Amino acid sequence: MSRPAATLAAAIAIGLSFPGFADAVPAGPCQGKVFVSSCVPPALKGRVEQARQHIVLLGYRFDDENGTILSPQTKGPIETAEVEQVLAWSEAGNRHLTLERMSHVLLRQNPGQPLSPEAAAELQRLAAAHGDALPRAVLDALAAAGPNTKALSGDVLKAYEDSARVFDGQPSPLQRLGVALPVLGRWNAPARLPDYFDDAERRLGTLTAAAIKSRMERNPVGRELLGRFSGRDGKPKLPALLALKLEERYGATYSGMNDAVILNHDAVVQDVLARAPPDEQAALRSKLKGPKALAEHLARNPQALEDFIARQETNLVHELTHAWQCRRSQLNVEILRGNAPGINPLEGEHEAFLTSLRYLHQRVIAGDPTAVKEALEQTTYPKLISNFRSWRNDITELYVQHFPEGAALLQTGLELQNDRIRLARRMAGEDNWSRLQFILKKIGFERGTRAMQSEMKSYTRSFADFRTKEYPKLQQEGLSALAAHFASRGRPNQEEEDSVRLSALEKKRLEVRK
Prior knowledge:
By secondary structure, the protein is mainly alpha-helical. The chain is 66% helix and 5% strand.
């Protein structure tokens, strides 16, 4: 497996948005080769800060107390040279992925015509998200070209081809052959990162798994999802469950590189602090800085973990759906092998949102007051029960706006794949070895194309079945439950907003019945 392919896949899963670790405490005198955040130039520290979440997903851990980064192999601090190498691959992956999407946009424009408004908007989103990763020539062309497609295309396509040549030169002949063949064993399978870093993480994972299983077993959709993880003994084999520092807006996320659902460590700590007496919170906050201390505390106070899981269970079902997708999907394997473009298929996001909202729906119709409150706070649930097609379009727009370099429908993935094949053909040399390399690469790409086509058919069939068999009942139940909620607040004294929402729900319910 080429390292860039793994880097790209990990970057897509977390949405390419990272928190920092600027508050690290110096480890002492700045000497030796070990990376210490307080001892390196500000520019390097800033790059690490930007890529922190990505570095963690590659298996490393941050020792914030000492300002060091720990190796997944030795568990000890790594040297600055290794940090720079990891950053180089991360930044190259971001740059390549962004240039690939830019070239895809420009190749579908008429060179003799101005950029379409849609294309111009997409290029601007890509530049805004990852301008720091793009070559200076591309940024200058974006600023100067305006609507001139031809002038802009030359700089972008050249930068993309240069980037592709860098990636293309990484695999050895044996690796190139291994990627072209089906997965035959560990020698040509995508490398899997360790799930747990140490015993403290594993202990917390065991506690968390027990808590989420307990809640999911009470819900029909939860039991359905747990059943998909069943091992030979009939018991669910859930992915690893970690508590690591994530971007603030994430309650949880899924990493396919190590098959792990990652809870936001700071969010768990906040829930723990909320239950502690006010005069104990400062000391407890200082104590719960790492997974070991958090695991020990939650083992002694299981109600704190139960409360957090209760608040995050809909998000966790969403992430566990991604874990199931990753386990069942040949496409994920081919993305990691470099045989398919590094996209986050939007159909997978549709399915993950749908599963989590079906789970929430079961709680709503069961009369769970916290579920009704959550359903009203989440705009996705009212939109789902109002109009299924419009709901899917909203999910698509959400990801396209916020993650333009990775989010893509599978049809766009097939277009990107065709672009990659044409580029590989153009870059192929005339000597026999170059021709053989292109043949092997094309064989691998064809396997990636078949995986995307298979996913498209599977999702199309799944959504059609849901739309005809389950959706009408879910829609009617959901509309009735929310209308009853607003009606129960009493008339005529209910707030005007509630009255308007009730009127809209009752109108929609009548339309559905017709």
